[in-house]
Write a structure and sequence with these properties.
With 121 residues, this protein is mostly beta strands. It is built from no helices and 11 strands. The relative contact order is 0.31.
Amino acid sequence: HVQLVESGGGSVQAGGSLRLSCAFEAYTPANVRMAWFRQAPGKEREGVASLASDGSSIYANSLKGRFSISHDSAKKTAYLEMNTLKPEDSGMYYCAARDVGCRNVPEGFNTWGQGTQVTVS
């Protein structure tokens, strides 16, 4: 399966921006779709953004308009562009991959990165 490594996290001031990257360590077939999740201490993991089977983007309602997901197969990298960051956006961000035939829900993702920390102050 695909192996994922996240990067680009760090500390940023409120209102700032970050771009997270998710590198594919193995060949990325066309039938793989990417997503980003996040988890803050003491809270449940939540979906941030994902790519549907048809390539369209899906976002959490609270993040729509601020976050953007993209997938560049040629560069073997997925991205999460985060703008107008807020303190409540802080948490560990995880990249995940699923086979296109699997459901676009957390249980459908069978490959996960180890996460990159985002802190907004």
